C-alpha cells in the first residue's frame, strides 16, 4: 500500500495534458447555464457538470448541487491532490441552491473550503448519509436531513431518496466508517435521475433497479479504478459503470468522477474512451452515453421518448 500511496502523491502533482475540448470557458459555461434555466425552458430538467462528482441539477423546480468539490485541493486546506482543471462555474456564480446532496465525506466529494464559501446556508436543505449531518450543522447550515438508505424527502415537486452503494467513509484517521455513504435518486415531473456518488460494482444495483428503476438519466463514476487489486472494492471501472446503468434500468448514462484530479493510476483520459466503447458493446446508442465537458449544460432526456438536447 505504501508504494502505491507514494506513486499517487507524485502523480497528483504532475502536469496533465488536457485536451482543448475538455473544459468550456467559464463565460460560455455560465451563459449556457443561464439560457437553459431561463423561463423559456422552465419545464425542462437541466444538468451541468462542474467536474468530478459535482453537478448542478434542476428538477421539480429545485436546484440541486451534488458533492461540491469546487476548489483546488482534495484534502485539508492546502494539502492533498490538486485538481488540474477549475470548477466549471465559480462558486460566486452558482445559482441559488435549494438542495445540497452529499454522498459521503471523502475530500474529493466534500470540500470544506467550498462548503465555507457557499452562500445560502440559512435556506438550502442538506441531505447527507447518517452520521454526517452534524458536519453541516456545526458550519451554520440550518436545514439538515440525515438519511439512511431508502429514506426519502419530498420538497414540493421534488423527491430525494438515499440509495445504497458500495464504498466507505473517512475524514481523518480516527473516523473510518463512522458515517454512512449513499447514492441518491432525484425525481420530479421532468424525470428521474440516479446519482451514484462513489461506488464499486455489486448486486445491490439489481436490487435498486427492481425497487426504484427505471431512471431517465444516471450519473455514474467511471474513474479512479487502477490498480484494480486495490480499487475494485470501492470504485467501478468504466465497463462496470455501464453495467450499473443496465442494472438500475437507466436510459441515458453520464460518466463522472474523472477528468478533474489525479487520484489513481489509470491515464486521466482513458475512462471516457472505455466508457463509450462499453456502452456501444452493451447496446446503448451513442446519444445515450454522455461524456460531458466540464462546465457543459444539457437538458435531461425527455421523460417519454425524444432525444436530449445540448444548450
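Q: What amino acid sequence fits the structure above?
A:
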Amino acid at each position: 500500500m505504501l508504494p502505491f500511496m507514494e506513486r499517487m502523491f507524485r502523480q497528483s502533482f504532475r502536469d496533465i495534458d488536457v485536451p482543448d475540448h475538455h473544459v468550456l470557458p467559464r463565460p460560455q459555461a455560465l451563459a449556457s447555464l443561464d439560457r437553459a434555466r431561463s423561463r423559456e425552458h422552465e419545464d425542462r430538467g437541466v444538468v451541468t457538470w462542474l467536474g468530478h462528482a459535482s453537478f448542478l441539477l434542476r428538477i421539480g423546480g429545485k436546484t440541486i448541487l451534488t458533492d461540491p468539490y469546487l476548489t483546488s485541493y482534495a484534502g485539508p486546506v492546502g494539502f492533498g491532490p490538486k485538481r488540474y482543471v477549475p470548477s466549471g462555474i465559480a462558486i460566486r456564480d452558482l445559482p441559488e441552491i435549494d438542495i445540497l446532496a452529499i454522498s459521503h465525506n471523502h475530500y474529493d466529494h466534500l470540500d470544506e473550503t467550498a462548503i465555507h464559501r457557499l452562500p445560502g446556508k440559512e435556506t438550502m436543505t442538506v441531505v447527507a448519509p447518517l452520521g454526517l449531518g452534524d458536519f453541516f450543522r456545526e458550519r451554520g447550515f440550518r436545514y439538515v436531513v440525515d438519511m439512511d438508505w431508502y429514506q426519502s424527502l419530498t420538497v414540493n415537486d421534488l423527491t430525494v431518496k438515499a440509495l445504497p452503494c458500495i464504498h466507505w467513509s473517512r475524514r481523518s484517521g480516527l473516523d473510518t466508517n463512522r458515517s454512512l455513504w449513499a447514492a441518491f435518486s432525484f425525481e420530479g415531473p421532468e424525470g428521474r435521475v440516479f446519482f451514484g456518488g462513489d461506488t464499486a460494482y455489486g448486486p445491490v444495483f439489481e436490487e435498486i433497479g427492481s425497487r426504484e428503476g427505471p431512471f431517465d438519466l444516471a450519473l455514474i463514476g467511471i474513474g479512479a479504478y487502477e490498480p484494480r487489486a486495490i480499487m475494485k472494492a470501492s470504485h467501478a471501472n468504466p465497463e462496470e459503470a455501464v453495467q450499473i446503468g443496465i442494472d438500475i434500468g437507466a436510459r441515458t448514462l453520464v460518466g463522472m468522477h474523472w477528468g478533474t484530479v489525479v487520484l489513481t493510476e489509470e491515464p486521466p483520459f482513458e475512462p471516457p474512451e472505455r466508457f463509450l466503447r462499453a456502452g456501444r458493446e452493451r447496446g446503448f446508442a451513442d446519444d445515450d452515453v454522455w461524456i460531458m465537458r466540464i462546465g457543459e449544460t444539457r437538458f435531461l432526456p425527455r421523460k417519454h421518448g425524444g432525444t436530449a438536447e445540448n444548450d
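Q: And what stands out in the fold?
A: The radius of gyration is 18 Å.
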